[in-house]
């Protein structure tokens, strides 16, 4: 039975690195727009803000700490939301580049992909009528021959280093095997509860966006970890966003939305801001009688160290 008395964490992934500006004129990529959209999303109800950086001139993903510094401290100064810095970056970045700003910021939370994988949006290239910037077409088409790397050693080194910072993780699990990878790190003592498992469905290269697959991910996590030791969350890619995250909430989980995951608000209608998606899922959750978690609630549920202990 669904517990409607529990609190649901809304995460908002503001810009990401997979979508390119030509996919939506509303995708934020300069620091001022990322800042404004992140703050509005937090005001709309997002307790966690998942952040990437992009080149201010043409929107390409960048690992530059200097660019992160142009918007992350301002977001932190104007909202109490949990700041979650990506360690995924993009498939074009080295591991050292992907970790550069997180090492400086030592945030409350980072994202962490739980394995190496094919990760691609390349079929979208054939449907694009035009490109806004000259780097985009090669970037999207090139995903067909790219691998996102996170080996066991990579993950071990990240967990070991960031344990010293007191940073906890949004464990991004794109398939069932990633849950078993997480279980391995639990077994060797590098990960301790409460875990925050982000079940990512609908990315080409990962588990498909079938509702049955959410049951598989949830049941597998329950079996590996025990339901009382972790927080489950759902990320539905593209057109699957709202239906699958709603299903995830009904299954006892939390939700993630944002223009990183889908540039649409509904069929054929682009989201003009991240906050539009946050407000939509909040309305759905309200109608289902769920209580929305505040940033303080999220910190308590996930065992976070608190804003005072970061270097944003």
From TrEMBL:
Sorted UniProt keywords: Metal-binding, Transferase, Zinc
Classification via Pfam families: BKACE (PF05853)
Gene3D superfamilies: Aldolase class I (3.20.20.70)
GO terms, molecular function: 3-keto-5-aminohexanoate cleavage activity; metal ion binding
Cofactor(s), names only, from the UniProt record: Zn(2+)
Keyword match Transferase: yes
Name of this protein: Uncharacterized protein (DUF849 family)
Organism: Paraburkholderia rhizosphaerae
Lineage: Bacteria, Pseudomonadati, Pseudomonadota, Betaproteobacteria, Burkholderiales
């Amino acid at each position: 039975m669904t517990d409607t008395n529990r609190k649901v964490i809304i995460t908002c992934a503001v810009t990401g690195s997979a979508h390119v500006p030509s996919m939506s004129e509303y995708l934020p990529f300069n620091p001022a727009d990322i800042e404004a959209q992140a703050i509005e999303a937090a005001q709309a109800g997002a307790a966690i803000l998942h952040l990437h950086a992009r080149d201010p001139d043409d929107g390409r993903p960048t690992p530059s700490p200097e660019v992160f510094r142009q918007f992350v401290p301002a977001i932190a100064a104007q909202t109490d939301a949990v700041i979650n810095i990506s360690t995924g970056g993009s498939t074009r970045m080295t591991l050292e580049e992907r970790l550069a700003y997180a090492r400086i910021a030592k945030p409350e939370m980072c994202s962490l992909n739980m394995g190496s994988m094919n990760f691609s949006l390349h079929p979208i290239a054939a449907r694009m009528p035009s490109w806004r910037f000259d780097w985009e077409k090669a970037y999207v088409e090139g995903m067909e021959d790219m691998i996102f790397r996170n080996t066991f050693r990579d993950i071990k080194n990240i967990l070991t280093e960031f344990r010293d910072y007191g940073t906890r993780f949004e464990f991004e699990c794109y398939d069932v095997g990633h849950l078993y990878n997480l279980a391995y790190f639990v077994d060797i003592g590098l990960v301790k509860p409460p875990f925050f498992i982000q079940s990512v469905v609908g990315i080409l290269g990962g588990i498909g966006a079938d509702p049955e697959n959410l049951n598989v991910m949830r049941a597998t996590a329950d079996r590996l970890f025990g339901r009382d030791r972790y927080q489950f969350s759902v990320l539905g890619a593209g057109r699957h966003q709202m239906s699958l995250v709603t299903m995830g909430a009904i299954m006892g989980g939390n939700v993630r939305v944002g223009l990183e995951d889908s540039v649409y608000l509904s069929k054929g209608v682009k989201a003009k801001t991240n906050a539009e998606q946050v407000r939509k899922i909040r309305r759905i959750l309200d109608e289902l009688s769920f209580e929305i978690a505040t940033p303080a609630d999220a910190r308590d549920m996930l065992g976070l160290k608190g804003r005072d202990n970061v270097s944003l």
